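Customer escalation, tier 2.

The customer says the design service returned an amino acid string that "doesn't look like it belongs to this structure." They asked us to rerun it and document both sides in this ticket. The original structure tokens are below, unchanged.
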């Protein structure tokens, strides 16, 4: 592909979104919350320089953030260097009329083990504090705060909206 072809492909959704029928923020927020709550696993993409990693991992959603407990792994190599991440939540592909998926970009912070925020997330996740305290090293808690969400759902078209909806936070 030429540079111009790459630019055209990269701008596809921006051009299409400009002409699309948008949901009001309240309706879109409710749809996003419902979709996020209906799932518990995402693909978390991290990167720094030439290093990239995409990790399938469980999450919980509350207080306007994604909360991810993790023992460790190479994602932390990137997270130390770059707090910008992207996560994807999606349904299995069953055809164009049944598309459902979400891409969330945002920033992360590593929550200090056993601080109030950590304990609240563990309680929400129903992880016993006693079990966490017995581990030889603490489980890390990643808090991902969304900055932008792109949500694709075929159901939106049935409601008279464009199938792709976006929201800035």
């Amino acid at each position: 592909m030429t540079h111009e072809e790459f630019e055209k492909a990269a701008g596809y959704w921006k051009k299409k979104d400009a002409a699309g029928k948008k949901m009001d923020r309240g309706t879109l927020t409710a749809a996003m919350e419902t979709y996020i709550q209906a799932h518990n696993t995402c693909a978390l993409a991290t990167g720094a320089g030439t290093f990239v990693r995409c990790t399938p991992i469980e999450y919980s959603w509350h207080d306007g953030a994604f909360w991810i407990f993790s023992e460790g792994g190479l994602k932390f190599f990137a997270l130390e260097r770059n707090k910008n991440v992207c996560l994807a939540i999606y349904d299995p592909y069953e055809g164009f009329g049944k598309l459902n998926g979400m891409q969330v970009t945002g920033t992360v912070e590593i929550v200090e083990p056993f601080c109030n925020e950590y304990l609240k997330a563990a309680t929400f996740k129903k992880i016993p504090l006693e079990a966490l305290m017995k581990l030889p090293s603490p489980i890390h808690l990643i808090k991902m705060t969304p900055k932008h969400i792109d949500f694709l759902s075929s159901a939106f078209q049935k409601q008279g909206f464009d199938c792709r909806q976006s929201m800035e936070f």
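Tier 2 assessment: The sequence is consistent with the input. Residues 7 and 43 are 26 Å apart (CA to CA). The longest strand covers residues 140-153. Sent an explanation to the customer and offered a walkthrough call.
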